[in-house]
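Example (one chain per record):
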Amino acid sequence: MILEVVILDVIPSREKEFESAFVEASSIIASMAGYASHQLQHCLEKQNRYLLLVQWETLEAHTVGFRGSNEYQEWKKRLHHFYDPFPAVEHYEMIFENPK
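Predicted structure:
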């Protein structure tokens, strides 16, 4: 499993608009092959910062499958205009997990 991690800085005062657009756009990413789950978290210290975490079965499911799809073009259209600056995307794989 691959974890996509993205820090999203939204244009100040557009946070609620972004949150609504994100909820609506969530069905796009959730419909993709190789998608497992995603969550959006809001930063407590910076009002306009969010953390997007997406679980993919493989790196290619995100970088080739999703980003190369027509669905990604719709995702971009709905969400990318909220970001300033444009976010960097990183991918991680699990090395160790300590179950409770």
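Caption: Residues 15-30 form the longest helix (16 residues).
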